[in-house]
Specification:
alpha+beta, four-stranded mixed sheet, globular
Length: about 220
Amino acid sequence: MSETPETATRTPADFWFDPICPWAWMTSRWMLEVEKVRPVEVRWHVMSLSVLNENRLDELPRQYVDLMEAGWGPVRVLTAAEQKHGPEVLGPLYTALGTRFHNRGLPNERATIVDALKEAGLPEDLADAAHTDAYDERLRASHEEGIGLVGQEVGTPVIAVPGPDGRQTAFFGPVVTPAPKGEAAARLWDGTLMVASTPGFFELKRTRTEDPKFD
């Protein structure tokens, strides 16, 4: 009898995300599909586009600067939730936030965050963390853990898995829309691992011609 994703030993896939990024959201939904069709277990980690871009705000358009300034809130809340309630809450809270931000188009504000916390079964007062730097040391450490695997020239998401030689294979992306499902999700996973684990391989890219398609 062949192994199934339910019976096989699952490979950890560490996934660093910023909940405000729609492309990371698409990739995360794909990874949930991958868990169904491959023996993979996603482990969620917070990274921050606000941290990544904090030293280059004067180079960015005003609209993107505003996005980066507002982006501190959700990642601080996620980090506070992780610190107080354990890493296992990150996945459900990310899903609750991302569904509101992206699928439903709700604003990045306290009411939206509180509603997401309720859905994830977490205390509403965690929303207070959005406006304090009390968790920034941990947030920055988590961000650096992820971005340090791939370099400063990329963004979110970052994925890392054990490579064929036992060392981590890490990469940015993949950037895809809509999120593949079923066997299509499996094929993309297999192919991504194949190219990412090739020594000396660095980049595949083409111009984006579509916006994220949420379902």
